[in-house]
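User: Show me a protein chain along with its predicted structure.
Assistant: Here is one chain, sequence first, then structure tokens.
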Amino acid sequence: MNQLKTKYRGVYKDSNGKFFYQVYLGMNENGKKLQIKSRKDQAGNYFHSAKEANLELIRVQRDFQLNSPKYTNKISYTEFVKKKYLPAYKINVENSTYLMKSNAFKIILNRFKLFELTQISVRDAESFRLWLLEDAGYSRDYAALVYGAFRKSLNYAVKLGYLTKNESMKTEAISKSKAHVKYWTKKQFENVITNIYIDDYFENMCFVILWTYYMTGIRVSEGLALRWSDIDFSNKKMDISHSLRRKSKGDFDIIPYTKTASGIRKISLDGDTLRILSNWKKRQQAHGLNQFIFSVTDRPIYRSTVLRIIQRYAKLAGVPLIQAKGLRHSHVSYLINEFNADVLVVSKRLGHSSPEITLKYYAHLWGVNDENIAKQLTGNINIQFSSTKKIKFNGNQSMNLSAKILPK
């Protein structure tokens, strides 16, 4: 039988002009679909309009949300997270990401351990959000991570049919703080490298690490995975297509992708960087090494080693202490302030999917590069005024002001 849609979702009109609703309520814990179709209301009366059918559909959904045993079996939020959400989440993310979110769910489950999944209301969600922000003692960024994980888990419950809607989506998300990452200027970087004694083998590696990150803007994990096969000395290119994932202290993987799909790229290398890398390659080979660039043992160094190198030389040079990712910011600042690089070039070099992403994180760096524009604006417009009054004003606008504002 043919059926026509109405303006109400889930309400239809058949070829005989009769109205009915059809609503999918999800699945019970045995995996059985819960779907209701009816031409009558709760009292057994046929629908005379699409509006009547829609009101009955809403009533049915409301009863379902109240966890009526007529429609569904109960499942606790804890059971849903442990048996459904986290196993699926673990498959789709890196192990480090999963471990970080697992810690967040310890907080979430402690809060909702006594709740049935369908009992979580918008008031419960808002109370949790405010607790994270005001009473839990977490940073705003960590509160945002925890609450975001909570909302996503309920979205997954909707996807699987355990819920018809995610009540937490009626609340505001917790936005992350907008803290700017510290970076080194060109002068500060020059001060740093003057404190490195490259005749020492290990310090030579320290110099290569700091220089490469500063001059290419690659991510920390991308640099840790760099091998000599990634450097094309003839075409002056660096191939960025891998990242390092460390599973334990002595165990690591070189994974064949970067943080994002657009992160796979080839970076053009300057002459100084090519010379520095070439000299370091020869020195490594003299020690029997030929695999990883950032290494003195032919095994990749730790992320923490990069930070310790930064800390050591920042202290010696008397420059601000920055994070490892601050070297990526430093590269962007260097390109903008020294060469007035446009956003498209910077975006491609960093491996961003679009210039908009680059501006999201680095727009403040372009702001310090407008001094030359201000100088060029000065005196560019010829300022001349009329020698006679040409407009008649009424009321207060006709006041005769003796003071004139003229350019000096």
